[in-house]
Amino acid sequence: MHSKALACLCLIATAFALPVQAQTADDSDERVIMSSAAFLSGHPDLRYRLSGLDKFRKGDFDGALTHFRRAARYGDKPSQGMLGEIYWEGTGVAQDKAMGYVWMDLAAERGYPLMLAKRERYWAELDADGRARALELGQQVYAEYGDEVAKARLDRELRFAKRNTTGSRVGSVGALTIIIPTPSGEEVIDGSKFYDEKFWDVDQYLQWQDADWVNNAEGTVDVGDVMSLDQPLPPDGDDGE
């Protein structure tokens, strides 16, 4: 694959992997929190996206496809967009532009500008047969990966992860502190930041993601250096699905 095409594909998955820039101390804490194994273990949407991107960059396209699909089951729009690009371009799979359109249409479900623009371009380039096939395929994909069902899966994971990490202090973290290993040493984070509802309440979590994606839909994306994909990610596990 040409490097330009690879960069385009990777941009979709990385653009919202972490907050775009750390402008304040709170932003910096968020970057540390989101790059931690403890956070990723409770957020399968991000965990599988990062794992899929890691495999994609290493040329393991079968593995990448599997992990992007897993992330997509939890409503991860960048991963759904990656699947759209993979099928549209035929990267490691048989090219299927109708399926590429279906995944990009799903990725545009929340109105992200980049996904909407790609969806419209894909549709314009499909012939009549391709459009008919895309409409047929879309029903099955939406039934399994659309927000209506994916949000419930993600909600279960977030609730389970928070309950099992806070124990009897669910809903009140008190003076709890979180120690997070980073490439530059340990970071101590206030528990109230780690357990901020925007990370654990599914509605607030998705609203927070949506706002960040839309606000940073244009221009240059800098995901920083907190998360290194050479670092091991938490085990994928079964997720009960």
- Helix content estimate: 55-70%
Radius of gyration: 18 Å
- The tally of strands reads 2
- In DSSP terms (H or I, runs of 4 or more residues), the helix count works out at 13
Largest sheet: 2 strands, antiparallel
Helix vs. strand class: mainly alpha
Query: How many structural domains are formed by the residues?
Result: 1
Task: Give the amount of beta strand, in percent.
Answer: under 5%
Oligomer: single chain
Tell the overall outline.
elongated
Order of helices and strands: HHHHHHHHHHEEHHH
The order of strands across the largest sheet is 1-2
In angstroms, what separates the terminal alpha carbons? 33 Å
Uncertain segments: 1-5, 16-25, 167-174, 218-232
What number is the mean pLDDT? 77
Signal peptide: 1-22
Keywords: Signal
Protein name: Sel1 repeat family protein
Overall description:
This protein is mainly α. The protein has one domain (3-215). The chain is built from 13 helices and 2 strands; from the N terminus they run H-H-H-H-H-H-H-H-H-H-E-E-H-H-H. The protein has helices spanning 3-14, 25-34, 37-41, 44-57, 61-72, 77-89, 97-107, 113-125, 128-145, 147-166, 191-194, 197-200, 202-215, and strands at 177-182, 185-190. It has a two-stranded antiparallel ribbon with strand order 1-2. The longest helix has 20 residues, at 147-166. The radius of gyration is 18 Å and the shape is elongated. Mean pLDDT is 77; it is low at 1-5, 16-25, 167-174 and 218-232.
